[in-house]
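Quick note —
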Amino acid sequence: MSTPTVRYRSSDEDSARWEDFGFRDGDIVVSTRSKSGTTWMQTVLLLLLHGDPELPAPLADLSPWLDHTIEPVADVVARLEQQPGRRVVKTHTPLDGIPLDPRAAHVVVARHPLDMAVSLYHQGDNLDRERMRELTGAPAPAGPVPPRPSLSEWLPRWVESTADPREAMDSLPGVAHHLNDAWARRHTDNVLLVHYDDLLADLEGEMRRLAAALRIAVPEERWGELAQAASFAQMRARTARLVPNRLGVLKDPTLFFRRGSSGAGREALTGPQLQRYEQRAAELMEPDLLVWLHR
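Predicted structure written out below.
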């Protein structure tokens, strides 16, 4: 097992919680940036492992977010330990911040950073900040909370961010670091990269690729119903089972699956602003990664 080189912490995350987790042969770690297809990939993998369009428990119970400090890590680990066989564990920590155990596979989902950012912006409106402070023990704001900027104001600022990726993982530098690190490991046997747009374009094909790489046997006659169960429409129809809201941190769980398509980020910027994003992305990410990411 390789030792993590970086510790990532935010107001509600701490990658050090991985120290309490014991790996098992065949475990699968889903490592993504926020709003990059995390829940979609968890659903896909759980459907493949269980071989049934109806999962045996809510997604948040089957595939908890290990780094999330809204719940004691001992409780999260206990739920995982109670599961038989292979498990799917969620993290928003880059691969250099978690133990890369050779017994586990690590699936990294990439999404166009602008689309991820727009989805993140809307998710921010749906988070119950008071409930999260109650669960994490974080202090309340010292003074009045300033009004939230519009998307047209916020997104160009997000593009210009120079934040430390270790503390602002969902900033553009944080996204770039997460993907650069995964891209550098893409030829490693137990690291798989998945593009969000490939899930949109050919969901069953990507599920078959994942099953083959992860050595998950699926009877041929089950593929149609499993791919249908993993579709965005079906996921939206099963909000109560699939939305990760076990402790009530969302104001309205039905808003979690918002658009499920690509292009919203580019639509939100003017021509010069989009050119500036492309310049910043080129400064922060490897050229061959950008070709793959922006295709």
